[in-house]
Amino acid sequence: MVEFKLPDVGEGMHEGEITRWLVKEGDFVTRDQPVVEVQTDKVNAELTSPATGVVNKMFFAVGDTVEVGATLYVIQPEGEEEKKPAAVPPAAPRQARALATPYVRQMAREMSIDLDDVAGTGPAGRVVESDLIQYAERKKAGPTPDNRPKEQEAKTEAASVKPLLLGESEERIPLKGIRKKIAEHLTKSATIIPHVTHVDELEMDAVKEWRDRIKEYADRKNIKLTFLPFFIKAIVIALKEFPTLNASIDDETNEIVLKHYYHIGIATDTEDGLIVPVIKHADQKTILELAAEISQLSFLAREGKLTLDQISGGTFTISNVGPIGGLQATPIINHPEVAILALHKMEPRMVVRNWEGVIRLMMNMSLSFDHRLIDGVTAVRFTNRIKELLENPNLLFAELR
């Protein structure tokens, strides 16, 4: 028998969620044939068979969360006689180590509770904060009279919750998959990084005129030309002049890592949540090349077909919410990056120029930055440089290589 264990298909991933089985028990599969689809950190990974043979046993169902190293399925290799069930290496659906977030694990340590003794009521049996509280209360009250299994206790206690008032209703949706990964990632970022947000506005009239001039040319090449490529170019130029915004902090070694490559993440809204595909070496690409890649990555993100390489390695992120609306925000930094720039809606506004009121096409931008590394003065100078390049596109094109 050949055991297939969940490998680390991401960058240090610890678990994955089964999103789809492509075969069933008893099916014959060939080596390298796709068998199961697992949701890792923001992408779907299609895992293939390590051998040719019959799928003898599958240990997890769709929706289960599996730790790296756990056996997903067992294959009886081609030509090998079927053995008795007892000869199959044992593998139980329940994890050897209780599933719980770092916060819950710390809470359990402080309460002197062994997580393996707690029945988890979260997705895939994950132990949540309320499980610890209920366990502590039961332990304080003494053992249950009938020594019921802890899983049954959890179900009974859940059923004893007071009903809602007449006319009220609730719907509970499991926090899992991409949404769970987003929640964990943003919580980590907001916890570790001291966020500060600087907001400024800029005139878009000049860059709009430039964009309108070359839009027809882009259309002939079947390229959708938005304003985003112009922002990427301006941002990359500014990042080269203010390198601390294109950096990260290595908390293990207490080192500042200045990155001399420019991989720009583009936050993209999808049905499953916010995905951040990354444009690699943005400084080496033309306006039209950037526009084409933005369209391609956005399509793949919405279809859930991005690869790990396409969502990793970013050095700076842009969140373009302008098409939806909004004047300003406090975007959360995409850890381990140290800054993120949100772009807001463009609209004609009355502004004062040379002591006279005039109408200009204006846009706000919000820069959140890691105050451990970046000072407010540096942040303002950074956005000032972006403004200068976009409000005077001749300067922007003069800086292009």
What does this structure look like?
By secondary structure, this protein is an alpha+beta fold. It folds into 3 domains: 2-87, OB fold (Dihydrolipoamide Acetyltransferase, E2P) (Beta Barrel); 102-161, Dihydrolipoamide Transferase (Irregular), CATH 4.10.320; 179-399, Chloramphenicol acetyltransferase-like domain (Chloramphenicol Acetyltransferase, 2-Layer Sandwich), CATH 3.30.559.10. 30% of the residues lie in helices and 26% in strands. The chain has helices spanning 102-110, 129-141, 150-159, 177-192, 205-220, 228-241, 287-303, 308-311, 376-391, 393-399; strands at 2-5, 15-21, 28-29, 34-39, 44-48, 53-58, 65-67, 71-77, 195-203, 247-250, 255-258, 264-270, 273-275, 278-279, 316-320, 339-353, 356-370. Strands 9, 12, 13, 14, 15, 16 and 17 form a 7-stranded mixed beta sheet that branches. Strand 4 (34-39) and strand 5 form a beta hairpin. The protein is globular and about 80 Å long. The protein starts with a strand and ends with a helix. 29% of the residues are buried. Residues 83-90, 92-96 and 154-161 have low confidence and may be disordered.
